[in-house]
Amino acid sequence: MTKEKWGQLRQRLLKTVGQNNYTNWIEPIEFRAADDGIATFDVPTNFLGNYVSQNFAELILHELKTEDPSLRRLQFAVPTPVGAGADMPQAPQPVQSSAAMRAVKPAANTALTTAPLDKRFTFDTFVVGKPNELAHAAARRVAEGGPVTFNPLFLYGGVGLGKTHLMHAIAHELRARRPEMNVLYLSAEQFMYRFVQALRDRKMMDFKEIFRSVDVLMVDDVQFIAGKDSTQEEFFHTFNALVDQNKQIIISADRSPSEIKDLEDRVKSRLQCGLVVDLHPTDYELRLGILQSKVEQQRLNYPDLEVEAGVLEFLAHRISTNVRVLEGALTRLFAFASLVGREINMELTQDCLSDVLRASERKITVEEIQRKVSDHYNIRLSDMIGPKRLRSYARPRQVAMYLCKKMTSRSLPEIGRRFGGRDHTTVMHGVKRIEELKTQDGQIAEDLELLRRALEE
Ligand SMILES: Nc1ncnc2c1ncn2[C@@H]1O[C@H](COP(=O)(O)OP(=O)(O)OP(=O)(O)O)[C@@H](O)[C@H]1O
């Protein structure tokens, strides 16, 4: 094994683990040497080393074995400064110059290291449209680092809609504007991991002190701690201590606080007491704007490639699932076009992206329908799914059941289960009722049409 070989192998890992994991965890580690069946990697912090070892070691070993089958195990070590210890097998490797690495503070301060930030995720590269304008404005406001006005800022939305991008953008901006501020960004999973590590190492006092000493705490994907009682408890205390000191907290999740199951009520209510903003699913215009901006970025790598008129519009129309898929499709298109030496036109797009286009054929989910219908009738999702029989909840519920039956391939019992465990006969009755009303009640017919169009967008 050589460093060059590792450089090639990790490109293969990029495909397996995805860009985010790659940037956060694989890129910062550096192959040092292989000896006696053990491959050693330099890592910037113990935390990162432990994380990679627990989550990616098998995958990495698998790739390394294709090059050197005698390898049996991996080890991760934080390099000591030159001359600092006789037991290190080699002098330390120079620290990589990627932005992800620069984001990591020195190993001595392990406990306070922030998770690596993606240098591409800035406000400049974030395209704003109607679905995300409020979230963007709120993120901008907290990124100014001025007096805390809403605490916490809670950003939520479906997969790949830009939550992490906005969180990183806030952290980048705060670093630039207020370098004296102690900004800690990490995922809820990392919070739990550090908490468990502190318990194991009997360093709870250090843990508490560190988390209480930050100026801005940013926790991504907080839904992860649902159902994890001790982590929630600790998170709750950390949260309260920071709010009491008037320190800014920014949280993201894939759903609103009230919709996160197995989250204690006191945590839920704490999370709701600041500003809760929703990143809505993208609309056509936003997708087109994002594609145009990403094409500009691709041009840096492929200055000679042109995109024929109509291709971006086609992609924005056809790939409406999430921005990550859209971005991946574009990257692939550019790489493919440059490899085969063709221009990016409709024909090449169809050839190169046939699988993505097939997979993106609009699959509407029960959750999407429930969310759209509850928004439309201005009721809470939990009331629509819950047991209340009031007409103001029951009618939207029936509308949603009807749409689920017509627009998804779910069976009646499955739909019943998603509506608070109702029986399939209840769903059948609801669907029938709406079918009748559709012909008698103009308002219902109009609502159905509006909702159908919004869902198909
Ligand atoms: N408005 C936008 N402008 C530019 N890029 C965007 C926008 N929204 C999302 N993206 C891009 O889409 C990709 C996915 O975004 P991100 O990782 O922030 O999603 P997420 O909401 O955190 O998703 P997940 O729930 O999977 O963690 C990123 O590469 C991000 O840069």
From TrEMBL:
Report the GO molecular function annotations: ATP binding; DNA replication origin binding; lipid binding
The residues covered by the AAA+ ATPase domain are 149-279
Question: Locate the Chromosomal replication initiator DnaA C-terminal domain: which residues?
Answer: 365-434
Give the matching SUPFAM superfamilies: P-loop containing nucleoside triphosphate hydrolases (SSF52540), TrpR-like (SSF48295)
InterPro entries under this entry? AAA+_ATPase, Chromosome_initiator_DnaA, Chromosome_initiator_DnaA-like, Chromosome_initiator_DnaA_CS, DnaA_C, DnaA_dom, DnaA_N_dom, DnaA_N_sf
Q: How does it assemble?
A: Oligomerizes as a right-handed, spiral filament on DNA at oriC.
Where it sits in the cell: the answer is: Cytoplasm
Gene3D superfamilies, sorted = 1.10.1750.10, 1.10.8.60, 3.30.300.180, P-loop containing nucleotide triphosphate hydrolases (3.40.50.300)
Let me see what the UniProt entry remarks about domains.
Domain I is involved in oligomerization and binding regulators, domain II is flexibile and of varying length in different bacteria, domain III forms the AAA+ region, while domain IV binds dsDNA.
Pfam families this protein is in?
Bac_DnaA, Bac_DnaA_C, DnaA_N
This chain's function reads:
Plays an essential role in the initiation and regulation of chromosomal replication. ATP-DnaA binds to the origin of replication (oriC) to initiate formation of the DNA replication initiation complex once per cell cycle. Binds the DnaA box (a 9 base pair repeat at the origin) and separates the double-stranded (ds)DNA. Forms a right-handed helical filament on oriC DNA; dsDNA binds to the exterior of the filament while single-stranded (ss)DNA is stabiized in the filament's interior.
PROSITE patterns membership: DNAA
Q: What is its main location?
A: cytoplasm
Q: Does the keyword Translocase apply?
A: no
Where is the region Domain IV, binds dsDNA?
338-457
Entry GO CC: cytoplasm; plasma membrane
Q: What is this protein called?
A: Chromosomal replication initiator protein DnaA
Give the binding site residues for ATP: 160, 162-164
Presence of keyword DNA-binding: yes
NCBIfam families recorded = DnaA (TIGR00362)
